[in-house]
Amino acid sequence: MQAKKKRHRYHLSLLPSPAAAGDGAREVLFEPADPDSVAVKGVLLLTPAEHGCTALCACARLATSAAGGGAAGGAGGGPGAPSAPDATLLLDDLLSVVPALFRAFERRAAVDERALAALAGYFEGGPGAAPGAAPGASAEEEALVERSLALEERGWARVKGTVRQRAGFFRAAAADGAWGRAVADVDAEAGLAAAWLWHGTSYERLADYVGADGDAISEAVAVPGTQSKLAVFSSSLPIVGARIFANWVAWRRSAGGELVIAFAPHGEHPGCAAKREIERAIGAHRGAAKAVEGRLAGFYRIQPLAARACRVTLVVRGSFGGMVPDAVTKFALKKSLGVLARLQARFERSGRAVDAELRAAAPPPPLRRDLPAPERELVGRCRELGAGGGGARWEKLESDYPLTRMWIRHGAPPARGERSIAWGKASFEVDCAARIAVAWVEDFCSRERMQINREEGNPARIVVERKSPHSSISATIKKLPFPLRDREFVFASAGCELDDGSYVHASESVDGIVVDYGMYPNAVRGRTKCLFQIVAAADDMCNVVFYQVLDAGGRIPAWAINRFVPASLSVGEDMRVTFQRNAEVDGGNIDALAAIMRAGEQTYTAEEIEIVDRVRDQLGKVPDSSFEKLESPDYLVKMEGYYKGGKNGIPRATTVLDGDICQCAARTYLPMLRAKTKVFYESGGMERSGTAENEHHMIGYFLLDLQIPTFTPRALLSHILWKWESETSLLVVSDNISDDARYPISSAHVRAKEVLYERFEKLDPIGDVPQTRYTWIQQPDVGGLIPSAAVRAAAIGQMMELSRMRAHFDRSLEIDARNRVRTMGVIANHRGVYSDEERAVMEKSMTHYNIFEDGSVKVKKVKSMTPSITNKIAFEPGDPLGWGRSETMVRATKEEITAYLWDTEARAAVDEWILRYPALRELEHEYVWFRPMMNTIAQRLLESVSWGLKMRLYTGAGLSILDLCTDLFMIYTYATTGQEGTALSLAIMVGLNVFFQLLLTFIVKRKESRRMLLKEMLIVLSGIAPGVHAMRVANGTERSARTALNPDVELAFTRGLEMAFESVPGSILQVHKLFLTTRSEGLVQRRAFASIIVSALTTGFTAAIISFDFDVTPSRRHDEPGFYGYIPDGATSRTLIFFCMIMNGALLLLVRSIMALAASFVATHIYYASLEEGEKAVMKEGDVWMLVLGLSGGWACFFVAFLMLMKKKYWTTFISTQTGYAWTQSMFVNGIDDRMKARIFMHNRRQWEEVREDVRLWCLEGWDEWQADSPEWFEDMLRVGIDEDMVPEGWEGVATSAGIGRFLSSGRQSGAGGAGGLRRQITALLVEGSGGSGGRVAPGAEDAYRTR
Question: Looking at the record's lineage, which domain of life comes first (predicted)?
Fold first, then answer.
């Protein structure tokens, strides 16, 4: 009998035959084809189910031999019949067709979506499948709903630490169980949200449920003819064990579209067959006998907010039975309420899109006279902000936002003891209807505004009470910088429509309200009063004026509060940015003026004609030869200057625009375009306005800050006109105005002058892209004593307006594509003859290409910034210059690539990135995942920048080298002070460290050249090996083909050797000698103390960085999320926890070293007794223990800090009672996919012996699929070895635990053998139907079914 297990081989030939079973069901019968073979019979029953699914049921009977313990099913087996154990294995193989078919046709997500769509239609009153069709809720169901709704009438307190979460969580104290309430806004239709909550047995819900609770039950049975179902589920609670809950669930839809799903213990149901079926399911569950029955009651209320948004409220009362600690009750309650958080995440969409839908669905505000008296009085008090009073006037403020104007007004002088708080005012345009703007203001906790609140780090922002859609009480806590305390604001709000059609929304602080934040706010209560006045300017535009007075309270001086008035008005900018359509609005204005220009029917006055002629004669007729070329930042814009006529000169710029002549001229003529206004204010503009005289004449006023200290702002007042010069050219000119009553020039400003000439000339189009030559000439005079050189330098910035114009109209991609198509045609049709010179150039180029292919020179791979590109460099002998080669895959034809490379003057190559930016904004608007994904990527990049890695590497290397130096110095110190034994011991430790590092170097570099190996060993002997290894890892040096380990792994081994042979034993030795010396040996003490500290820090740093790097490795976090991942993601938190880990390791080493000394009581006592008269020990015998306690206290503090900084869910990994064997087995048992299950082969076979049979069956079942796909983990599994009985029959050359071989895909025998053959036969029957070859399967069905 061989040591390894052997199994008999039984060859079965089966004859499957399909048959109808009634009600649309199908059954497949199979029996032995050979009467003399093993007796086996079976059936596979397929029954139609909902949502395009099929229910499968397989049964089989197999005769066994008498030696195996009797015949199965009463049938005696022949002499060749299998024994009972072998028969069990055969039956497992036969019945595995069911899970095989499930995997073959699995489409869980699609089935869930179908079920949700059908249920949503049912809940919304439309057609669709339902758990039980009924005309309406019965009297019993109505009573259940009413009883459940009454549960909400309690005093609720917010759950601690949940105020910043998207959903609100509350609990209530009661003696009759745990009470919980949750409120969440869901981005889905009310019916769809109700369907998700109702369908608790979907694949998605079951995956979450079973993944969290393991071996749990979750079943539901519909009650026919009603709107009810009976459901049962179990839950595992910490400490107290499992609880099982059986509920009666019913739903009701109200006239307003509100849905209520109520649930109560199933004992309250009148009783039916479904109730008995649920009770049988409970009794059949293997954990039901040990589980304690719990009771749940409550409801889900789903209120529609918009077409695709709703608000879901969950109220639940739970009684868990038995003696349940309060902490466990809170845990279970939080777990129950968490279903709404999962519901939110399931249907989450773009916050901007959902907010827009909610605003569109919001009801219009009522008239002011229809408001209740308190709200009407509130609006009246706040409207006083916009009224004048006390003779105070509004003073203009400098705004940080170009399109928002701000003012401040100081109130009357305060009475004694009062504060003088200024009022703020902001005015801006909003690109939406007035009613939509009101809805934005009323939605205090919209998704976008809550996102901004979280990004600012504010502790809270909630709606305390919503009295009506337009009236509420809200609260917020604003975070202030240290040392100021946070500020809390609680205010009432109300909105209405005035008699003139405008809207107002007022807010005012209220007193006497204590807000439940689920925490102590530790904030100072501030006061505020604000008013929004919204007036419609068009159907899709409105003008908004925002007033606010804000008192932050506390001891902040009034003058300091007033300085923050512009910041407090920034809410108006948030509103404007939400709706801004700058490009669309500007485009509409440009199109309107371009249409007027094309009409050409304009009448000009004599003064206007004179202005145009004067500017043209002054600037348009300057000879080209007078201009000298200037260096242009944009290579497509030609810049020149003429500096002979005046002190400021005449700059000129020319470019070609890809736009219509009227479009280009209109964009230049309109000074108040938003894009130009933004650039104006960003470049130092203070004020900008224009007044149209007619369709072709405008008065423009500009106030500009030169941004030079002590220089006064410049004011410019100009005529701006446009006029056709000919049929193909159009002029836009600007000339000075001496005075205009509408724009008085302040004496505090210096008057500037400007003459501007702009000419647009129509050119021949390129394909369908129009072309316009744009010439810009200016003669500036900024006034005052400003050097002309500074004015000339500023002219470059002025001429960059042409670059912005070119970018606005740029269609380079279309032009370049057209040119490439033309070049591709030339390449495809080329039949020319190459000259000798051309052939020589190509042949020479090919020789450079071949040096990378023929292996004549050494080729080095260079790290690429893009993973899809491979870079290499090579040096020819005697050539000091190297050659580089890049290789990648391009989805284009050879002609397309050649044309792209040939067009060296392509314009799009320069502007490619600029043209891509709008697409990113569209992604953010369309996809909900885009912003969180980009935030996460940016955070990860900031946390993993190279300086952080290099700092850790070089710090560790520096400590290692310093530790070696201090140890060598202490060897010298001990040897020269008569302590030769200690010096020798320490030298042996250092020598062992060097020896094993040399051995490691030899093992790693043994295949390198002797010169390279000698160099590496010299690095070790010189003591700089840690620094060299750290530099290689930091620079990303890759492992060569002749090196056994990667640089990072080699560095980890080096650190481990140093810690094992030098740092730890050296610290213990030196601590022992430090305390057993006398005070007379002070020099030795000081040196030993320094060496001990360095060794402890080195040990702590080494242990910390190994643990840190292991935890943050993405592959480990993915494969073992329950163990790896405790390091937080924030950069600051990572730095702090890394420091705590270093100190934990260092202090723990010192504590253990000193305790080792103190524990050796006999040696210590002898030492103290042997001291001669006059000698004193470094520390008293009792003080040694005090030092241990002190260091232990320090270690405890750092360890507690470490626990507080790490992710809280990993605390249990420090106290888990799970054994190493159980952890190894969990890799397979809890593995979510085959790749994770296969990791069990990386561990010792003895650790997973208990689950070996499950592993074997898993291998046999999935072998065909793995061989076809050849995943990387499968190759790893073969490499470490697989036992023979885990490999199916017919697969040869497989790596086993006895020896490593190579897996050959051709090892599979032909025919439909093995379990896969039977699966394919049955699948073929399902596909072909009952027709065909007389109920028999396709050819190959008679092939043997082999098993072992």
Answer: Eukaryota
- What integer pLDDT is reported at residue 775 of this predicted model? 94
Q: Which residue has the higher pLDDT, 626 or 1309?
A: 626
Q: Which of 780, 803, 802, 804 is nearest to 793 (CA)?
A: 780
- In percent, how much of the chain has pLDDT > 70? 73
pLDDT at residue 303, rounded to an integer: 93
d(CA 311, CA 303): 5
3-state class (DSSP) for residue 1340: coil
Helix, strand, coil proportions of the chain in percent (round to 5)? 45, 20, 30
Residue 831 CA to residue 45 CA, distance in Å, equals 70
- 1026, burial (CB in 10 Å: exposed 0-12, middle 13-18, buried 19+): buried
From the number of C-beta atoms within 10 Å of its C-beta (0-12, 13-18, 19+), residue 1282 rates as buried
pLDDT at 446 over 80: yes
Q: Whole-angstrom Cα distance, residue 520 to residue 513?
A: 15
Structure tokens at 267: 């004992």
For residue 959, the Cα-to-chain-centroid distance in whole angstroms is 36
The span from the CA of 343 to the CA of 204, in Å, is 11
Q: How many CA atoms lie within 13 A of 565 on its CB side?
A: 27
Task: Report whether pLDDT(1339) > 50.
Answer: no
How would you class 247 by CB atoms within 10 Å of its CB: exposed for 0-12, middle for 13-18, buried for 19 or more? Answer: buried
Q: Which two tokens stand for residue 818?
A: 């057209």
Asked whether 679 and 706 are in contact (CB, 8 A), the reply is no
How does pLDDT run across 464-504, given as a tens digit for each residue? 998 888 999 999 998 887 778 888 999 999 999 998 999 99
User: What is the β-pairing status of strands 628-630 and 750-751?
Assistant: unpaired
CA–CA gap between residue 1238 and residue 446 (Å, rounded): 47
Contact 83, 62 (CB under 8 A): no
Residue 44's contacts (CB-CB under 8 Å, 6 or more residues apart) are 27, 28, 30, 56, 57, 58, 97, 98, 1322
Written as six digits, the tokens of 740 are 């205009």
Where does residue 707 fall: left (phi above 0), alpha (psi -120 to 50 degrees), or beta otherwise? left
Q: What pTM was estimated for this model as a whole?
A: 0.62
User: What is the tens place of the pLDDT at every residue in 547-594?
Assistant: 988 888 777 776 676 777 777 888 888 888 889 888 889 999 999 999
H helix runs in 285-410, sequence order = 326-346, 351-361, 373-383
